[in-house]
Design a protein that fits this description.
Layout lengths: L1 H7 L5 E3 L5 H5 L8 E3 L9 E3 L3 E5 L4 H6 L7 H7 L5 H6 L2 H7 L7 H6 L3 E6 L2 E6 H4 E3 L2 E2 L6 E8 L6 E7 L10 E9 L5 E9 L6 E2 L1 H7 L30 H21 L2
Parallel strand pairs: 1-2
Antiparallel strand pairs: 3-4, 4-9, 5-6, 5-9, 7-8, 10-11, 11-12, 12-13
Length: 271
């Protein structure tokens, strides 16, 4: 780690981890920048349980996420992990790479947003933490400085006993960039009422985002009553879907509404 951050300190080098975004982005171009290959930093791989949080090392692969025993609040993240490209990509692609690539369609981002995740950024000058929602600032844009390495994703244990679900809509079932995707995390009390509801939507705005008004409206709701009936089109106001080759903005918004309703129903049904 010390060597890696020292090499990044001048702010002129690029980071190579799994390489599943790095190399395709080059196209036919040759790498001319300095490259710091961090793929051998074993201390940055794996998921550890700490007193107040789970720590997902930046080099943890999506296959690692799938295979690691984790509480049910991570079910959405595990489902998303199975949607990250092919099995070969899941074996190589890293959690940090998926986040730092900052695609609006990054499968791993909505589940982590719904889990109130933070990112840990390490440089020669120290460590800083940022909420994931603040770290992602636009299409392919993040708050990571050129001298920083995303060393971990931190998930608080407050939602450990919550249910979660992830749904993705694409033009086909597998190996597809999403038209819309939704992650929901719902915690229900002993009285059958919702204590926490976190919903994040991806591929419907430049950055995946939460739906705070809907989350507030769901607090205290009777879970057995069918949460999907409480979702209204106006709850999707934070979204700004665009027209592109995969779908129109209007179709994306309608799809997101349906996916939110289904994800909430899955969270309640799995209690």
């Amino acid at each position: 780690m010390e060597d890696a951050v020292a090499l990044l300190a001048p702010g002129t080098a690029r980071i190579l981890a799994g390489g599943t975004d790095f190399y395709p982005a080059l196209g036919e171009r040759i790498v001319r920048d300095s490259v710091v290959d961090v793929s051998g930093l074993a201390t940055l791989r794996g998921v550890s349980h700490q007193a107040d949080r789970f720590r997902i090392g930046g080099l943890t692969t999506w296959t690692d996420i799938i295979r690691t025993p984790l509480p049910r609040c991570f079910d959405a993240l595990k489902s998303a992990a199975r949607e990250v490209g092919s099995v070969q990509i899941q074996n190589r692609g890293t959690v940090a790479g998926n986040i730092c690539n900052a695609s609006p369609a990054a499968d791993g981002v909505p589940p982590l947003l719904a889990l109130d995740a933070e990112v840990e950024l390490t440089s020669a000058s120290g460590v800083r933490l940022l909420p994931l929602g603040d770290f992602l600032v636009g299409n392919r844009k993040t708050q990571r400085r050129a001298d920083e390495l995303l060393t971990a994703v931190l998930v608080p244990r407050t939602l450990e006993n919550a249910n979660s679900a992830f749904l993705k809509l694409g033009a086909r079932r597998y190996l597809v960039i999403s038209i819309a995707m939704v992650a929901a995390v719902v915690r229900v009390g002993d009285d059958g009422r919702v204590l926490d509801a976190h919903i994040a939507v991806g591929s419907c705005s430049a950055v995946a985002c939460r739906l705070p008004v809907l989350e507030a409206d769901l607090n205290g709701a009777i879970a057995s009553g069918g949460l999907k009936d409480k979702v209204r089109p106006e709850h999707l106001a934070p979204l700004s879907p665009i027209d592109d080759l995969r779908a129109t903005g209007a179709y994306r918004k309608d799809a997101a509404l349906q996916l939110v309703q289904r994800a909430l129903a899955m969270c309640v049904e799995s209690r």
